[in-house]
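Hi support team,

I submitted a single chain yesterday and got back a structure, but I'm not sure I'm reading the token output correctly. Could someone confirm the output below corresponds to the sequence I sent? I've pasted both exactly as they appear in my results page.

Thanks,
R.
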Amino acid sequence: MSPVQAKCFLLYMTVIQLFSSVPPPTGYLTVTIEPLPPVVVGETVTLKCNFKTDGRLREIVWYRVTDGGTIKQKIFTYDAMFNTNYSHMEDYRRREDLVYQSTVRLPEVRISDNGPYECHVGIYDRATREKVVLASGNVFLTVMSPPNNISVVAENTPAAFSRYQAQNFTLVCTAKGGKPAPSVYFKRDGELIEVISYTQSSGEQGGGSAGVRGARPLISRDLDDTKLQRSLSLLDPEGRVPRLYTESPQRVHTQGQQSYEPSPATEVIPETVVSREFPRWVHSTDPLYYFSHTNIPQSDGSVVVQARLTWTLNPQLDNDALFSCEVKHPALSMPMQTEVTLAAPKGPKLFMSPTRAKVGDTVRITVQGFQVGSPGNEVFPEPLFTWTRVGGRLLDGSAERDGKELILERVPAELNGSMYRCTAQNPLGSTDTHTRLIVFGTRACVCVCVCVCVCVPPVLPAGYRTSRLNLKKKKNHI
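Hi R., thanks for writing in. Yes, this is the structure output for that exact sequence:
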């Protein structure tokens, strides 16, 4: 073999080895998934898995990824070999529908459907049918849920009325069911309130004080010794608080008209008397509002938002003020709103049962609404009701009792004519209603010396006895 032939032979062998080391073509496969916009609970979502390949399709599998990607839950499979599809979500009752080989529709999505999804596509290797080539794509499904409930309550109520010292007042707005967390803000009389954000420590959440950063104390800034002495000077000689004005169901006195409560021993009181009391301090007309909020994640993926609005209460200005809590959320076309009107109690309306109590009966005196306002009207914040007996203790020996109902068991005759006071108070004011207990079935009798009780007859009109004697004479004559 000549040198030229030898070189050609070596070149030929090299080319053969080179081609024998290159693997046979397996085909190409690319998978892409269109991104999804956020959806609202109850809507229908379509998951589209787009793939390109020159190979033969084996299967398409959709996975739900949980626990940060550590768990992949198979939810739907399309088997190209047998041209069949089936769902793996038995608890969902076959919620998935196959639109096309690679497209799945999820009707009425829930918050639990929120999260990443993966589409896995497999094709046969062009060299052998036993080998499958895989490619995948992923998409994140964001499910939003609008708040389904909002409410406003007063913190730490029912609470007593503070006569001589200003106090903090806090409204708590709670929005439930939202995902993501909604935005919450307060309005007063329809206008947005300018607030100062503050942080609240865990130890202060049960009380009425707020941990304000860089702010003055809320309570003491408008109360000095001069105003306190002026307030104390309004006490009567016995140390009791006089009533500023009195109103009854028949007539209403104007505010500012003073009427002192007479002594129980000499007073002449109608069946029901209502009296109202105002605070004794002077306060700023330009309060500072402090705002805080807390997000509480729930097990279903939603977030409970609690927003607090705290300020130093001024009953003269805040009474009848309308406060509203508004909630904004991307799943809502317009804000949700709930509102409350701050109001001092206006005299409890009392109902006594039975209406004609007899000796030995059990008497119930119940609060049924208020003297002023429409039937069934509500007072916000919820009042604290306290019962006392004028000039003595209650039947059970206690000085007072809380609640909407006072129960007097087996009333004795000695309680006839006794007067009871029901005090309704909340942070905006205090008001009293007096009612008298009349016990029927007692008769005034006079006992003679022979121990025979003879009931005293009523006073007879003049001439009654003479006419009766004449009638007897006529009968005897006949």
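A quick pointer for reading it: Residues 44 and 274 are 60 Å apart (CA to CA). Let us know if anything else looks off.

Best,
Support desk
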